[in-house]
Amino acid sequence: MNVYIANPRGFCAGVDRAIQIVEIALKKYGAPVYVRHEIVHNKFVVEGLKQRGAVFVDELDEVPEGVPVVFSAHGVPKSVPEAARRRNMLYVDATCPLVSKVHREAERHEKSGSEIIMIGHAGHAEVVGTMGQVAKGRITLVETPEDVALLDLPDTANVAYITQTTLSVDDTAEIIAALKAKFPGISDPRKEDICYATTNRQGAVKELATRAEAVLIIGAPNSSNSKRLVEVAHREGCKSMLIQRAADIDWDWLGGVTNVGISAGASAPEVLVEEVISAFRARYNITLETIMTVEENVQFKLPAILTKEN
Hints:
The chain is α/β, with parallel strands linked by helices and 310 residues long. The chain folds into 3 domains: 2-11 and 195-292, 4-hydroxy-3-methylbut-2-enyl diphosphate reductase, catalytic domain (Cobalt-precorrin-4 Transmethylase, domain 1), CATH 3.40.1010.20; 13-96 and 300-307, Rossmann fold; 98-182, 4-hydroxy-3-methylbut-2-enyl diphosphate reductase, catalytic domain (Cobalt-precorrin-4 Transmethylase, domain 1). The chain is 38% helix and 18% strand. It has 11 helices and 12 strands. It has helices at 13-29, 43-51, 79-86, 97-111, 125-131, 145-149, 169-182, 196-209, 224-235, 270-283, 304-307, and strands spanning 2-7, 33-36, 54-57, 69-71, 91-93, 115-119, 139-142, 159-163, 214-218, 239-243, 259-264, 287-292. Helix 4 (97-111) packs parallel to helix 5 (125-131) and helix 8 (196-209) runs parallel beside helix 9. The longest helix is centred in the first third of the chain and has 17 residues, at 13-29. The mean pLDDT is 97.
């Protein structure tokens, strides 16, 4: 079996920062530290943090008095920190800086009076957080080119769009093309909203698909960027499957395959990639090759509340 490993893969700078925030908060404040929603969409990561004293909840009203709370990397509506301040809670915002950039864009468009369209997946935590940066009803969500065709906006001369950061680059390009055809003067983001890590991981999977007959993507079923990697492989004509751990590998599905690609979503830790490689080694005589498409060296600063002295 020839096994091709995508690089870049796995943790991005925003995910790495968010996990560090919880780890440092546990050291600084002691357990328990509460976290609103999964800090990142990966069960292995969440369970590991639980064992160290993190408590994950859905809403702030589940957080008792006198304990710190961390907001997840996906971002939160403005109503959440407002509620935390009303309760005088100590909170740390782990929102990815690239998601925060989209939040600021939404605010800027609201101030300018633009009709705001967001390309994203309904109900995803990042979309909920971004739409919650402005007044209710100010952002119209579209998921497909067909949604664009149905748009009926009051002011077609002053339209702007923003996007979720973890979308399929190719699918989003089709939606943007539909928006520009319908609204020729539509304003683009100053810098593309789909994040560098999403773009790079999708590019790496495209390269895997030129060599492999099947591609395994390690990631959680609620991870948008991981699911997009599966779709990218399919789009490139390669069969692909999402798995969370090595135990999820369907070996019958791999029957007859001699070239397999492996990548991981931005919230999947490297230990899970090693686990999958070990599973292949236990079953096959493998030749392992890393396929490098681009080097990443992005780092984000930690929140000042965690780095300043008490």
